[in-house]
């Protein structure tokens, strides 16, 4: 690793310190995070098993849910091993290229999750506002193209972030004040002009999260208008109930996402508070999503009951 006047030229490794200010309790903080990760892994693996195996769940909403579960699994795998290694074993060093790889997967999977939530909102919009055309619009080919477009958008837009970071050569430090490789945390290490990196990072955030959030809001405005036009109270409640799980997941994802995003760039939040919240933002939604959909979705709830309670021979 080259060094000149306390600067680092083309560093080969970086140091992740975990949660600054809480180093003395990081060992114990790791256990709740491990519990959240295990809950996320078990819940999402369970969804990925029951959705393909039950023909009643071969519907657009559940197919998108399966993709969301796969994305959540990827997030846990991308962040948890290194984070827990820092907390428990003091494994602070990380190859710079490995850091950029982790950065890419974390932010790309975040972008994919946002896109899938938008696709699920579109599914709810068609199901409630234009139910007679639901099956003709959301065909298997349409679902495949939607998921492919979401993946390509996230991969291309986020893929430029590590490329822009790789062109930087001079760094004022190699110590990343975080428990994982986050884009702005790495950008702040540079001793060069990073205006392009900051501007493009903002563009990616608004092009993915901002765009998706706006259209999800528009979808639900139209959905609520259609629901409130229904003549019977029971019909309104039934229609609204089909959206509650998605609304809960949507609010959980975007509230945590935007708080983490803006506090890191514009806020004056203590570093340990920001890092704890940004880690919670990455790990808690993958753990809660299977629970929310398992509780609020009748078909999944019934399938879980059949697997966990009924004997194999009683399933019809």
DSSP summary: helix tally:
11
| Residue share in helix | over 70%
As a whole number of angstroms, the C-alpha radius of gyration is 22 Å
Question: What's the SSE pattern?
Answer: EEEHHEHHHEEHHHHHH
The low-confidence runs, each spanning 5 or more residues with pLDDT under 50, are: 311-316
Question: Overall 3D geometry?
Answer: globular
The N- to C-terminal Cα distance equals: 64 Å
Mean pLDDT: 86
Structural class: mainly alpha
Tell me the strand percentage band.
Answer: 5-15%
Find the count of extended strands (DSSP E, 2+ residues): 6
Strand arrangement across the biggest beta sheet? 1-2-5
Biggest sheet descriptor: 3 strands, antiparallel
Function: Odorant receptor. Putative odorant or sperm cell receptor.
Subcellular location: Cell membrane; Membrane
Family: Belongs to the G-protein coupled receptor 1 family.
Transmembrane segments: 27-50, 62-80, 142-165, 202-227, 239-260, 272-293
Written description of the protein model:
It is found in: Cell membrane; Membrane. Helices cover 73% and strands 5% of the residues. By secondary structure, the chain is mainly alpha-helical. The strands form two sheets. Strands 1-2-5 form a three-stranded antiparallel beta sheet, with no helix packed on it. A three-stranded mixed beta sheet has the order 4-3-6. A hairpin with a 2-residue loop joins β1 and β2 (7-9). α10 packs across α11 (298-308). The longest helix has 34 residues, at 96-129.
């Amino acid at each position: 690793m080259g060094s000149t006047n306390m600067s680092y030229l083309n560093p080969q490794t970086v140091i992740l310190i975990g949660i600054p200010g809480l180093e003395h309790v990081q060992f114990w903080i790791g256990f709740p995070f491990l519990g959240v990760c295990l809950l996320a892994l078990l819940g999402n693996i369970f969804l990925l098993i029951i959705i393909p195996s039950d023909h009643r769940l071969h519907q657009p909403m559940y197919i998108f849910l399966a993709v969301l579960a796969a994305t959540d699994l990827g997030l846990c795998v991308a962040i948890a091993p290194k984070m827990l290694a820092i907390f428990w074993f003091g494994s602070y060093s990380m190859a710079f290229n490995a850091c950029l790889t982790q950065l890419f997967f974390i932010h790309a999977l975040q972008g994919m999750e946002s896109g899938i939530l938008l696709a699920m909102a579109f599914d709810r919009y068609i199901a409630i506002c234009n139910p007679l055309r639901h099956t003709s619009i959301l065909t298997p080919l349409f679902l495949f193209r939607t998921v492919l477009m979401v993946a390509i958008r996230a991969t291309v837009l986020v893929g430029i972030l590590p490329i822009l970071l790789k062109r930087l050569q001079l760094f004022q430090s190699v110590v990343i004040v975080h428990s994982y490789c986050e884009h702005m945390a790495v950008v702040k290490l540079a001793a060069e002009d990073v205006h392009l990196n900051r501007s493009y990072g903002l563009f990616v955030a608004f092009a993915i999260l901002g765009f998706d959030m706006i259209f999800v809001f528009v979808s639900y405005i139209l959905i609520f208008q259609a629901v409130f036009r229904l003549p019977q109270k029971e019909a309104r409640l039934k229609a609204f109930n089909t959206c509650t799980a998605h609304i809960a997941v949507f609010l959980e994802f975007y509230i945590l996402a935007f708080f983490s995003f803006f506090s890191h760039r514009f806020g004056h939040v203590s570093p340990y508070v920001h890092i704890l919240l940004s880690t919670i933002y990455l790990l808690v939604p993958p753990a809660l999503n299977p629970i929310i959909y398992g509780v609020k979705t009748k078909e999944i709830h019934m399938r879980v009951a059949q697997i966990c309670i009924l004997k194999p021979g009683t399933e019809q």
